[in-house]
Design a protein that fits this description.
six-stranded mixed β-sheet, Four Helix Bundle (Hemerythrin (Met), subunit A), Gyrase A, domain 2, 3 domains
């Protein structure tokens, strides 16, 4: 890792708070010259003589020009977020003042930080592993209690601890296998094959559990797309408004009012559902624009995780769509206008509502949640939310399977060793415990905001 650290020998600066006008803004610097750079701009006292984790009020100047009255926070290496000297300048929230401060720092020798570069330095300096670094981005992007709690658990090292335990135990056996190879002429066995098989079975169980959690993790992190489809005037827009508890979509008795899709977010028990109100679907329409809306409705239904097929109980015509049958597994039939009479043959999973008056809407929300999650979310369990982790765990599972086959067939240690190394490699790729490709790091940290 030392070769990597030599490339991070300069000092970076960026706005750490959201862009725009606010009461205050925070400018962050990190690097060995960060305190010296700010000290040349801060005239009230000598910052280089001040202890770490202290605050200092005074004027910030560029030459003789006063930029702003600021509060400077010092975090000296190694007791900082990045492991380097960090200075945070709290100034008034004028974008003009923020830019003046950044320009002044650059003039004194800093450079503008790249997206995620502060957190990347924290990883490279050993302040956190790669899964924790990625959790930082997930916390910033979280839109619900569930996504925030899941990311916080990873940031505190929950996932890392699970993987480290697996990896360390596997390393112990790998070392014994390697030792056998060194004494291959003596035909001695240092690794107990029965204990090793027991460990592989245990590791496989944990890996399968982590892999199985990815579906739930994907729901928590990215939300669930729900398409409302049905014939014109079935009440799709009214249902959207009822779910959101606000007048988001235009409602009228005129068929084909909704020409394009409307998408809104709904939080149900900490999970984000992206509700898509689609254009009414009918087999034939002479309106070109309406036909485009209908085609888009079908497309959205195909892409959605859940389909609400809304059926008007007062409509005596057929509400079935032949093309919808291929999506039966993800379709919930919802019968609307239950308060207006009418009847329908339905199974126990179908729901009856009156979207206009709100009857049955809460029940529908509960069904959507159970359809997406299956059960209450247990944040105490490790949940995989990252596609990179999921892909690597699939490789780990494959390697464990090959090791198990080798043990059951009593193959020699020299043939087991490559599969063990492969398994360790993919576990290390997840946490960054092995040398991580710079392009991979660039992709991961490039998704962060500047200043983090």
């Amino acid at each position: 890792m030392s070769a990597q650290l030599q490339e991070w020998d300069d000092t970076i600066v960026a706005i750490a708070t959201a862009p725009g006008i606010g009461a205050i803004a925070v400018i962050r610097l990190s690097g060995k010259n960060s305190i010296a750079i700010v000290n040349r701009l801060f005239t009230s006292k000598n910052l280089e003589e001040q202890p770490t984790h202290t605050l200092h009020v005074g004027l910030l100047k560029a030459g003789v020009e006063i930029i702003d009255e600021v509060v400077v926070a010092l975090y000296k290496s190694p007791r900082s977020y990045t492991g380097e000297d960090i200075v945070e300048i709290s100034c008034h929230g004028s974008p003009f003042i923020q830019q003046q401060i950044i320009d002044a720092c650059i003039q004194e020798g800093a450079r503008l930080a790249k997206p995620g570069e502060f957190t990347q330095r924290a990883f490279l300096n050993g302040k956190m592993d790669l899964t924790q670094a990625e959790a930082v981005a997930d916390i910033i992007a979280s839109q619900s209690q569930a996504s925030k709690q899941t990311a916080l658990k990873q940031l505190r090292g929950g996932f890392s601890n699970d993987l480290s335990g697996l990896r360390n135990r596997l390393i112990e056996f790998a070392a014994l296998i390697e030792l056998e190879l060194d004494f291959s002429q003596e035909d001695v066995a240092f690794a107990d094959r029965d204990q090793f098989l027991f460990l592989i079975n245990e590791l496989s169980t944990v890996t399968d559990k982590l892999i199985g959690s990815f579906r739930l993790g994907n729901v928590i992190k990215n939300g669930v797309s729900v398409a409302i489809i049905g014939k014109p005037n079935a009440g799709k827009s009214t249902l959207l408004n009822a779910l959101l508890n606000e007048e988001r979509a235009i409602v009228s008795d005129i068929a084909g009012t909704t020409r394009d899709t409307i998408e809104e977010s709904l939080n149900i028990n900490g999970v984000i559902f992206r509700i898509i109100d689609t254009a009414g679907i009918r087999e034939h329409s002479g309106d070109t624009i309406e036909n485009l809306g209908i085609e888009r409705s079908r497309s959205n239904a195909g892409k959605a995780s859940i389909i609400i097929h809304l059926i008007d109980l007062t409509d005596n015509g057929s509400s079935d769509f032949e093309w919808l049958k291929q999506f039966n597994a993800k379709t919930i039939k919802v019968y609307n206008k239950v308060d207006a009479g009418g009847s329908a043959s339905a199974n126990e999973n179908d729901i009856f509502i009156a979207a206009k008056s709100g009857i049955g809407v809460e029940q529908l929300k509960n069904v959507l949640y159970k359809h997406a999650i299956g059960e209450e979310i247990n944040i105490e369990n490790t949940i995989i939310t990252n596609a990179r982790h999921y892909s690597a765990l699939l490789k780990v599972k494959e390697a464990l399977s090959d090791i198990k086959v080798g043990l059951l067939n009593n193959i020699s240690g020299d043939l087991l060793a490559p599969d063990i190394k492969r398994c360790l490699n993919y576990l290390g790729i997840i946490t960054g415990e092995i040398e991580t490709d710079r392009d991979i790091l660039g992709t991961i940290f490039g998704k962060f905001c500047i200043g983090k």
